[in-house]
Amino acid sequence: MEPDLIVIGGGSAGCAVAGRLAEAGKRVVLLEAGKDARDIRSRVPALMGKLVQNPEFDWCYFGEPDPSVGGRPGPWPAGKRLGGGSTINGMMFIRGHAWDYDRWAELGAKGWDHASCLPYFRRLEDNERGEDAWRGKGGPISVSECRSRYPITDKWIDAASEAGIRRAKDLNGELAEGVDYIQLSQRRGWRSSSAGYLDGLGSGLKPDVVTEAQVLSIQVADGRARGITYMRGGQRHSLRAREGVVVSAGALNTPRLLMLSGIGPAQHLRDMGIDVLRDLPGVGSNLQDHAGLHLINTVDMHTLNNDAHGLRAPLQLLRFIFGGTGALTTGIGHAQAFVRSRPGLPVPNLQLAFSAFSFEVTPQGNVVLKPESSVATFIGLMRPAHRGRVSLRSADPAAPPIIEHQLLGDDDDVEQLVEGIALARRIMRQRSMESHVLREQRPGADFESKEALRDYVRLASMSMFHPVGTAKIGPDGDPDAVLDAELRVRGVCGLWVADASVMPTIPQGNTNATSIMIGDKAADHILRTIA
User: Fold this and answer.
1) Active-site hit among 290, 405, 436, 466
2) Cα dihedral angle (238, 244, 250, 251), rounded to 10 degrees?
3) Which residues, listed in sequence order, are joined to residue 245 by a DSSP beta bridge?
4) What is the pLDDT at residue 310?
5) Residue 79 has pLDDT above 80, yes or no
6) In the prediction, which pLDDT does 302 show?
7) How sure is the predictor about 276, in pLDDT bands with cuts at 50, 70 and 90?
8) 480 vs 490: CA distance, rounded Å
9) Those residues with Cβ within 8 angstroms of residue 343's Cβ, 6 or more apart along the chain or in another chain
10) At CB < 8 A and 24+ separation, what contacts does 225-230 make?
11) How many CA atoms lie within 13 A of 201 on its CB side?
12) How far apart (Å, rounded) are the C-alpha atoms in residues 176 and 26?
């Protein structure tokens, strides 16, 4: 039987939209290029460092050489499993600031203001802190407190308060400003990914899931999306849908698939030898990502680095198995602050994410723990100015996309990160932390002047792996708007996009929770437009 709807991509948003459409009684087929989500490596939180740049879990994309960071070609991870990015990420659950969503509405994404998005944030989560006007209970994504607790984290929060940063009640609540412990997408210490949407929601109805199926193109006839062509097991298949197709392949693969299907910038498609079905110059443009770098300090207190080496490591395994606690439950951070580094800003421009451990990030994007007792503060730039592009390398569906993006393409972005380093250092010099800091490993004593720190920022900055924006929602008068506010691809009936690519601008903080919200909310938009 033909399904009502086909969903392409079982990632953070794709699982959500497929699950909600099935809950509403639609027959849905979800196709995912990767495998299922049962692999133990993706379920144990501390093993996240083994997933990035692992072709079993990640598309392993690399960007073009970036002149803004000395010509380095950085990694651009993209999840390749059921659950997508929520299966390989650092599990920091952050919703962003209300201002970000209200800004979307100002830019033409009607119905995507904070008040309109909040009900979907609430219904997607099962929050360990309980339910209130801002938080939800009983949803498919479990949101829990950190279960790898270290006293040095408490010291850092106290020091942040001493440095003048307000103590927040809940950074996912009414106001996303100040300092608090990080919340994680975990359930009893195990990773909670959006694959949970596929277990059956209120009605118990589930999508039909086809894994290891790479979609080659969307089939469009008479201006309407009719189905797809995909490869599975070395064989080419076609699948038709009665009501349409939803693309949820992520901010890197969604524009690639649209262009392979003849939907995108006309001249680029012609250059690739692809017939133009719909000239949409915004497909692949507007690429955004957060940038940041680490402050690393050696300390005299116990950290996760101590627990990960020597005789303590087997004890951590027992703590995880029998109690769902300890080092193996760690996310990428333990506490965080959203702050303004200068007066006059309407919202925080920096995220300071504190980890009660320190690590190296390899050129491939993997996390490798340091051997000594140390801590890291990641200084992230929340609203970068630069916009990049995703384009086709060739008409071959197996070819990776071309990713062109300048991480620090605006000089003021560098200045904001320099200000962030100063603020992170100031926290370390407060009474609660100063006596425990033995030395600063990075940037170190050689980088004290503003000029030296500017050089360091360009030397050490890295992507936060939060690509968004490459098929944005926008008003009718915006030539770069790929979608209308109902997530419909302009000029093609029966075709929607639901993933991080729809964001007009990048929100504050880690983007996975927002991506899941988009998928959850998208189902209602799709149901409304086909009713």
Assistant:
1) 466
2) 120
3) 6, 495
4) 77
5) yes
6) 95
7) very high
8) 11
9) none
10) 225/492, 225/493, 225/494, 225/495, 226/494, 227/6, 228/6, 228/8, 228/31, 230/31
11) 27
12) 36
The residues, ordered by sequence, that sit 6+ positions from 248 with a Cβ below 8 Å of its Cβ are 7, 8, 9, 10, 11, 13, 14, 17, 18, 254, 497, 498, 499, 519
End-to-end Cα separation, the chain, in angstroms: 21
Q: Pick the closest to residue 284 from 154, 435, 469, 124 (CA basis).
A: 469
Length of the chain: 531
Cα separation, 94 vs 143, whole angstroms: 10
Calpha distance 83→79 (Å, rounded): 8
Decide if pLDDT at 362 tops 80: no
Query: What single DSSP character describes residue 89?
Result: S
Distance CA 64, CA 282 (A): 20
- Sign of the dihedral through C-alpha 346, 347, 348, 349: negative
Q: pLDDT value at position 22? A: 97
The neighbour count for residue 216, using CB atoms within 10 Å, is 18
Give the pLDDT confidence score for residue 416 in this predicted structure: 98
Q: Are 346 and 99 in contact (CB under 8 A)?
A: yes
pTM (2 d.p.): 0.97
Structure tokens at 340: 């303004």
**Largest distance between two CA atoms of the chain:** 71
User: What's the rounded Cα separation, in Å, for the pair 482 and 311?
Assistant: 55
Query: Tens digit of pLDDT for each residue in 138-157?
Result: 999 999 999 999 999 999 99
Task: Give residue 59's pLDDT.
Answer: 97
Q: Which residues contact 296 (CB under 8 A, 6 or more apart)?
A: 358, 370, 374, 375, 376, 377, 440, 441, 442
Give phi and psi for 383, each to the nearest 5.
Answer: -135, 75
What tokens were used for 6? 């086909």
Contact 186, 192 (CB under 8 A): yes
Residue type, 411: D
182: left (phi over 0), alpha (psi -120 to 50) or beta: beta
Identify whether 75 is preceded by a cis peptide bond (ω within 30 of 0).
Answer: no
User: Does 309 qualify as catalytic in the annotation?
Assistant: no
* Among 31, 38, 34, 1, CA closest to 17: 31
Per-residue pLDDT tens over the stretch 162-195? 999 999 999 999 999 999 999 999 999 999 999 9
Tokens 């402050």 sit on residue = 295
Cβ–Cβ under 8 Å, residues 148 and 334? yes
Task: Answer yes or no: are the C-beta atoms of 29 and 270 closer than 8 Å.
Answer: no
Residues 270, 179: Cα–Cα separation, whole Å: 51
> What is the number of H-type helices and E-type strands within the chain?
14, 28
